[in-house]
Design brief:
The chain has a six-stranded parallel beta sheet, sandwiched between helices. A three-stranded mixed beta sheet has the order 4-3-12, sandwiched between helices. By secondary structure, the protein is an alpha/beta fold. A hairpin with a 2-residue loop joins strand 3 (about 90-95) and strand 4. The protein has two domains: about 5-300, NAD(P)-binding Rossmann-like Domain (Rossmann fold); about 300-505, Orthogonal Bundle (N-(1-d-carboxylethyl)-l-norvaline Dehydrogenase, domain 2), CATH 1.10.1040. It is about 45% helix and about 10% strand. The longest helix is centred in the middle third of the chain and has 24 residues, at about 300-325. It starts with about 35 loop residues before the first strand and ends with a helix. Helix 18 (about 460-465) packs across helix 20 and helix 20 crosses helix 21.
Length: about 500
């Protein structure tokens, strides 16, 4: 690894021309020069660059193939501005207690900003050389109703795309891109959703179908029917489960990586050693040899998905909301404070584990311990506010499915209800236990504020939010026992604070 002797080279920008000066152990595992594009990825944020892109590069190193990635950024051109001058290259910094290991990754061969070049995105999806479209755009970007898994056609961006044929949303990008591919006879294609939605492939297929069915125009009926029939024949939407902790990269991270690498990199990502990708083995055509890189291909992703969403993501969201209320900036700080590890352990053992069908050979206790160890990784600080954001979209799959399963079994999911109550207090009061303001970022923030309308009493907060069927559905909103448990937690959170309340629940 480069050290002090190379620090004077940090004025050099990472790019193809700079690769020769890097040590062999950090160089890309395949030569990016001349690598063709076979994958379009919508949402080229830090997670994709640390996860699917590294798996893909490793698969090419093991088995070859032109599986370069065209990365599409959605909301801003920040990633394009950072990576385009670097020929798509960036550093993955893998950190744990043992230190830091670097690898420069070259799987990204093209970068597009959807707002600036919408036609370029559609053309790439339609290109016969493209065999896979993958996505990591976050739950809220799908504009779906978690209670029904249907498209929110009344969402302003979706409605605008339906009205004027635009591509503001990824669902519109997919629908128009697939239509262009059909018209140009681009051949079968596989769409791989990698976001944390239960049955994500099936959900995305339904959202695309909903969008197509609602398109307007004089010939819309015939054309829409033709596109839907073609999608049914030629497109596959496999379900997936992804897992790797990838916090937001900071200025300090970029500076430290530049010093260690010996060149400036404006688009690095930091992550943990652990990574997991489970993919339903249902493809319309060619794909990378991902299994050669450690990806699990299976006929049924659902058991793995439920384990990850309910154990890891559910405890992550619970720790984030409780930690933020307790005044902790980072997840690992909350875990070092005393009671919060016991909350996560009790959630996984008492509430989540009874709801799971565990695959043969999968050791749930070891997985639980690994989750807690990963969360406690102080070398990879993850902000509580980052995990707590978009709670209205995350709670249904991360906590509410667990609550429903336990209630149907006649049990009282006290710890999962604490996670729900912590989110309610976070979104309603917007202050931690010391009175400091908490930042709220949620696609339903305005609707939630209207529902609450100044209500601050615990029972009023619970009543107003449980009535939001777009989050809680009908079943939980009408569950008197669940409501009373949530109200009791909210009362304790108000009187005693997050950590004392947590200790009462798990003590």
């Amino acid at each position: 690894m480069p050290g002090a002797a190379t620090q004077d080279r940090t004025g050099t920008r990472l790019a193809l021309a700079a690769l020769a000066g890097l040590p062999a152990e950090v160089q890309p595992r395949v030569d990016p020069r001349g690598l063709g594009v076979g994958i379009v990825h919508l949402g080229i944020g830090a997670f994709h660059r640390a996860h699917q892109a590294t798996f893909t590069e490793d698969a090419m190193a093991a088995a070859g193939g032109d599986w370069g990635i065209c990365g599409v950024t959605q909301r801003s051109d920040d990633v394009v501005a950072a990576l385009a001058p670097q020929d798509g290259l960036y550093t993955v910094a893998i950190r744990d207690r043992a230190g830091q290991r670097l690898r420069v990754t070259g799987a990204v061969r093209e970068l597009l900003w959807a707002r600036a070049d919408p036609e370029g995105v559609l053309d790439r999806i339609a290109a016969p050389t493209t065999s896979v479209v993958s996505l990591t755009v976050s739950e809220k970007a799908y504009h779906h109703d978690p209670a029904t898994d249907r498209l929110r056609t009344g969402s302003p961006d979706v409605a605008a795309d339906l009205a004027d044929g635009g591509t503001r949303t990824v669902v519109a990008q997919l629908a128009k891109g697939l239509d262009r591919r059909r018209r140009r006879d681009g051949g079968p294609i596989t769409v791989v959703c990698c976001d944390n939605l239960p049955h994500n492939g099936r959900v995305l297929a339904r959202l695309v179908s909903d969008f197509v069915a609602h398109r307007g125009g004089r010939t819309a009926g015939t054309e829409n029917a033709a596109l839907l029939a073609w999608i049914e024949r030629a497109v596959r939407f496999p379900c997936t489960m992804v897992d790797r902790i990838v916090p937001a990269t900071t200025a300090g991270d970029r500076e430290a990586i530049a010093v260690a690498l010996g060149v400036e990199d404006r688009g690095p990502v930091v992550t943990e050693p652990f990574r997991q990708w489970v993919v339903e083995d249902d493809f319309a055509g060619p794909r990378p040899a991902w299994e050669r890189a450690g990806v699990t291909l299976t006929a049924d992703v659902a058991p793995y998905e439920r384990i990850k969403l309910r154990m890891l993501n559910g405890s992550h969201s619970t720790l984030a909301c409780l930690g933020a209320l307790a005044g902790h900036t980072y997840i690992h700080e909350g875990l070092a404070s005393g009671v919060l590890p016991a909350v996560a352990r009790a959630l996984m053992d008492d509430d989540v584990a009874p709801t799971l069908d565990v695959p043969a050979g999968f050791h749930l206790g070891a997985y639980r311990d690994q989750v807690l160890e990963r969360f406690a990784n102080a070398a990879l600080p993850y902000r509580t506010l980052q995990v707590a954001m978009d709670g209205s979209q995350k709670l249904p799959s991360r906590l509410l499915d667990t609550v429903r399963a336990r209630r149907r079994a006649g049990a009282e999911p006290a710890v999962a209800a604490l996670g729900v109550a912590a989110w309610m207090r976070y979104i309603a009061v917007r202050c931690d236990d010391r009175g400091r303001r908490l930042e709220v970022s949620d696609p339903l923030a305005e609707a939630i504020a209207q529902r609450l309308h100044g209500r601050t009493a615990p029972r009023e907060i619970a009543g107003a939010l449980l009535a939001m069927t777009e989050i809680f559905g009908d079943e939980l909103g009408g569950d008197d026992l669940f409501r009373e448990v949530v109200v009791e937690h909210l009362e304790r959170l108000e009187l005693d604070g997050a950590e004392v309340t947590a200790s009462r629940v798990v003590g």
